[in-house]
Write a structure and sequence with these properties.
GMP Synthetase, Chain A, domain 3; alpha+beta
Length: about 140
Amino acid sequence: MQHKITTSWKGGLTFESDNPSGKTVLMDTNIAGTDHRNGLSPKAMMLSSLAGCSGLDVISTLDKMKVVIDDFKMDVSGELTDEHPKYYHTVVVDYHFYGADLNQKKCERAVTLSVEKYCGVMEMFRRFAKVETHIHFHNN
């Protein structure tokens, strides 16, 4: 399967990129002397892509297992190299599950399946970064 996107310059340092879904996203970067931003940072968006990919896996797996959770979120942090071209050499993914009676074993299994088998973005990151994952349970 091939994905194709088109990214168009919108002036200044802002770009708009489409997606095979038909949706678009604005991207830009920090501009010295201003706090104004129009879009998302391309590098940080990579971390969002990692979270989105793995999160979709985890939730769909939990649905198949008929596991009920109250809420779920992921915190992803990446450390960039000092030299150009800067890229993430270390990434940490924290999975947070919330619920009154969490099935921790099944939640852990869902994360493991995503990390080790299903998440293609996770696999891409592993090609250039050390990826560390942690699971946290929060009982409501």
